[in-house]
Amino acid sequence: MPKFCILGASVAKSRKTAEGPIAGWGQYMSEFLAPGWEVRNFARDAMTARTYFTDRFATLLNLLEPGDIVALDFGGVEQRINVPLRYHGKREFKEFLKLYVEGIRAQGAIPVLLTPCARCAFDVRGQVSDTRDGYPEVTREAAVETGAVFVDMNAHTGRLLQELGPARAKQYYRWIDAGEHPLHPDGMIDSTHFNHAGAREVARILASALESNPDIPAGTVDKATLVPGDYPPPAPEFTVVSPESALYATDRVGTAPVFTSPGPDRAVSGLQKFTGNAGPDTGYLLFFSQGAYIGGTAVNEQGRFLWRRTMVWPAGEHTVQAVGIARSGGVTPIASLRFEVRDHVAPPVVAAPKSGAWVNPRPRFNGTAAPGVTKVMALEGERLIGEAVVAEDGTWSMRHPHSWRPGAHRVEFVSIFSALHSTATPVDIRVLGVPEDSFLRTSAGARDRCGDKCDHYPFDGRW
């Protein structure tokens, strides 16, 4: 029996019913393949191209037989430069994809490179926003360079979201109001992972793309199953009738809602979530910007709410207003919150060492970052090598736990603000040291070093 294997992270992972409403597209692939195919879904939460390759890829290779298909859905987790154990620079990511293709082909199986699905985010013009930071293009390049089968799921799902529009698209994601689902009583806003309807549609789209690809054997996909389903209905917040009237009501009841996040006058990203509390009789909240209705959300029995626009806020200063709808009738007083949206972040300043300076093998890097920056990440050759937490006064400092080898090196530093990252600040250092082939090293090479601060003699060239 031929196998259809799936490698990737949480978006493809099969889910149990008890985990609802989240679902992975991998759990629905069997519905669209021809009889006789066995689906094996190896996708796992937070799995990256690096971790699967080093932890599990050998096991998969031993399972593969000629004619099997392996779909690789990487590139979503790897773009997170603020998470050192997950981040892959683009060159590193491409190199891993090439290794997968080479290994799978060596077993006579067919590798299929997929780009990550689009996230549910729209700009103010209603166009789907690109949130994948160029990683789909890296996957495309790897497919061209290796000749592997390529399916641009980012483009396919982006077109789907564009057809659905902001009012319907969120109905395919794990995006629920407070009080709507028992597993998420305070609500859940997840613009990355799908619910069951969305996951099934993504699987259907992938199957359709495979069926039309000349490099996939005929008869792999059951054509009769590829009929598109009905679009989901608009989300409830887009069906509110005459919401602006709540701004001009003369008689108000209860208390105004209270925002708990973000704080007033805070700098935030364009995909900021708003949380807070409402009075005990409030059942629904309406949100406005410049007098125009921009969405709403339910309030749970404990009075908590969670809301985010499907559209990305443009850069600049904004004020959002919230009005509660009382279950007993009437509207609450108006709550207002000012905030500033940033769509870019300045690169960090490196105060020391100065670029071009001589340093010892254990240099300490330090500098300052713009207000709101939480971390500064260090990279060498596009690979992440360290991170520093930014203090409240905007300063940061880091020292790599390993000594640098003698010679010239370039280090790049990147600021992190929410989901944004800056361009890099490059610093060239010249590391002073004893060459590896020096007498000072080779003459003391009979013994293993006992630690970084070894006091035994003789000096072995390291400090």
TrEMBL record:
Keywords: Hydrolase. Gene3D superfamilies: SGNH hydrolase (3.40.50.1110). It comes from the Bacteria. Coiled coil: none annotated. Belongs to the 'GDSL' lipolytic enzyme family. This is SGNH hydrolase-type esterase domain-containing protein. It comes from Streptomyces hydrogenans.
